Amino acid sequence: MNKKTETEKHDKLLSNSKAEITISTGLGGFQLLSQITELSGKIVAAAVDFDQAPPYLGIEALAQAGACHVRFLCDFSKQAVLLAIKSFTLPEEETLQGRFDLVGHLHSRSASVFAYELSAVANGRKVLDGEFVFTAVDYNSDLREDVLRKHYKERLACLRKD
C-alpha cells in the first residue's frame, strides 16, 4: 500500500466517529502498569512487572504513572502529555526483570504544568529515578474526548482493583 493510500485510509478512520484508534508500539501491550496502589493529591504509586525489558520501558512506565496522575487531578477533562524529563538516573542493569514499585511525588504544579519526582524500586533498591514534567492539554480532533476520557477512566478503575 502506498503512503498516500495509507494516509487516506487513516484520515477516513479518524473522521468516522465509531472508528477505533489503534496505537502500535511493536510491543505486546502499550499499557505497562499492572496496578495503581495509591492515588492522592500529591502521590501516585503503581506496580509494573517486567520480563527482560529494556530500560527505556522503565522510563515509559514511570511516564504512564505520572500521566495517569495528571489526568486524575484534572478529573479526566484534559489529556496529559509528557513535556520533558529534566534529569534521570539510568539503571545499571541492561534489562529489567520482575516486579517494580513505582512512586511519584508531585512537587509543583500550575494550572497546566505538573512536575514530579518519579522512581522505580525493585528488591528494596531504587533502580530508576527522574524528574518528569507533564502538561495538561485540551482534547482535540486527534485526541478525541469522546473516546479517550471514558477510556482513561475505565483503565484507571481496572488498575485500582486488587
Structure characteristics:
Thiol Ester Dehydrase, Chain A, 162 residues, six-stranded antiparallel beta sheet, alpha+beta
Describe the structure.
The protein has a single domain, classed as Thiol Ester Dehydrase, Chain A. The chain has a six-stranded antiparallel sheet, with helices on one face. The protein has helices at 3-15, 55-73, 145-160; strands at 33-39, 43-53, 79-89, 96-109, 113-122, 125-137. Helices cover 30% and strands 41% of the residues. The radius of gyration is 17 Å and the shape is globular. It is α+β, with helices and mostly antiparallel strands and 162 residues long.
In summary, what is this structure?
With 162 residues, the protein is an alpha+beta fold. Helix content is 30%, strand content 41%.
The total domain count is 1
Number of helices: 3
Task: Characterize the biggest β-sheet.
Answer: 6 strands, antiparallel
- Give the strand line-up of the largest sheet: 1-2-4-5-6-3
Distance between the termini: 45 Å
Average pLDDT figure: 83
CATH architecture descriptor: Roll
Helix content: 25-40%
Q: Name the CATH homologous superfamily.
A: Hotdog Thioesterase
Shape: globular
Low-confidence runs:
1-7, 9-27
State the assembly state of the protein chains.
single chain
Order of helices and strands: HEEHEEEEH
Alpha-beta content class: alpha+beta
From the 3D structure, determine the CATH topology.
Thiol Ester Dehydrase, Chain A
Query: Mind telling me the C-alpha Rg?
Result: 17 Å
